[in-house]
Amino acid sequence: MPYSRRPVPVPPPADGRPAGSAGRAVPPSRATRWRILIVTALVPVLLAALTTVQLVRPVPDPVVRLTASAAHTFEGAAPVLPWPAGGQAAVDVEGLGAMGSSGGSVSTPTASVAKVMTAYVFLRGHPLAAGADGPTYTISPAEAAQLPARKARGESHIDVVANQSFTEREALEALMIVSANNIAHEMARWDTGGLAPFVRKMNAAARSLGMTATTYTDPSGFDPGTVSTAADQVKLLRAAMRIPAFAEVVGERVYVPSDGGLARTGGNTLLGQGGVIGGKTGFTSAAGGNYVFAARRRVGGVHTLIVGAVMGQPAITSAASAVEAGRGLITAAGDALTAATLARPGDRVAVVDDGLGGRTPLVASAPVTVIGWPGLTVRLRLDGVVPRPAAEGDRLGSLTAGARRFPLVLGGPLDGPSVEHRLLRLP
């Protein structure tokens, strides 16, 4: 039987293509081609939609952060002031707080220091422009008739007659320089029509100022029931010195009556010495010698206000011992003050963060110089910084340290998040 060749089966290629197709491209199926076309068409649509969503999504609220230190502590031990051996005393620096106190916090008679509150309440109800005389008031016949009795009791006073005229400024000068009790009572009547309602206003004002250890029973302080503490009187004088007319009057050394009478000097004999710009003395046998004072000291080019009170000092006829104690406190407190510069003009102290990666610096436009004393920590904070579109160099809020505010300016344009940051942000 003749030999015959049978065909040998050829296995399919390993890549799954039909036999004999090796080396030839296989065209995609129609379904595959449609899928490719759809995806190709959808990609730009999806990208456009994603771009639109990213651009219209609300952006985070910008946040302002302090990059400088939030506090500065002055090196060294706290100063030891020459506190009086008896009574009580307190010293405060405007905007920085208490430098110290002595003698506890038991309420003690104020004597004529009470007239600071009388002037404060009257000026709040009858504002007086700096340098102005104000309205005119007249002495009542009843008060004029009280003059002999006041003299007999040894009250401080000025001679008055019924229907005598006083401008508001003249009355304040008689009250604060001469320390006239009769004028204190008349000012109470001019303000509220009587003593009791005015005393209620005095006590209400004390509560509003945080004078929790103070009670007023009369407008002159002659009544020993009018009591306070050195710390409370510092709170009051600090508030009163912010009224320009009050500061003007207590800065005068001499009372000159408008009727041509003899000029009289006040009890604040330290005026003009050691930076003293105002104050009030008081003395009665029950109170002893009292003295409240305000003094300015220039430190590091900055005018700083020192306010203090000395109460309950041994005295026989005047507040001279309290004034002398005040002299030592004023000198020592002023000498203890020092300055530190925390930032120079152009230094970054804060940053505006838009929440998407953009950060705009806020820089100091002037030296940031803080005032204090050894051992004191001064806190720094940002005030009034409201992020808004602005150009480089525009002011945007301030940095507050103690009683001082330092303007801040933008170290670059503030335009909000960039398009790039808005597109690339994550959910």
Strand content: 25-35%
Encode the helix/strand succession as letters: HEEEEEHEHEHHHEHHEEEEEHEEEEEEEH
Shape: elongated
Compute the average pLDDT: 89
Oligomer: single chain
Distance between the termini: 84 Å
Number of strands: 20
Task: Report the uncertain regions.
Answer: 421-425
Q: Biggest sheet: strands side by side, in what order? A: 1-15-16-20-19-18-2
Structure classification:
alpha+beta
Question: What is the rounded Rg?
Answer: 39 Å
Helix content: 25-40%
The number of helices is 10
Largest β sheet strand count, sense and barrel closure = 7 strands, antiparallel
What do you see in this structure?
- The protein has 427 residues and is α+β, with helices and mostly antiparallel strands.
- It contains ten helices and 20 strands.
- The termini are far apart.
- Helix 2 (115-125) runs parallel beside helix 7 (230-240).
- Residues 421-425 have low confidence and may be disordered.
- It has helices at residues 30-56, 115-125, 141-152, 168-178, 181-192, 195-208, 230-240, 244-250, 320-336, 419-424; strands spanning 63-66, 71-73, 88-93, 97-102, 108-109, 136-138, 165-167, 227-228, 254-255, 264-265, 276-284, 288-299, 302-313, 338-343, 348-353, 359-364, 368-372, 377-383, 395-401, 404-410.
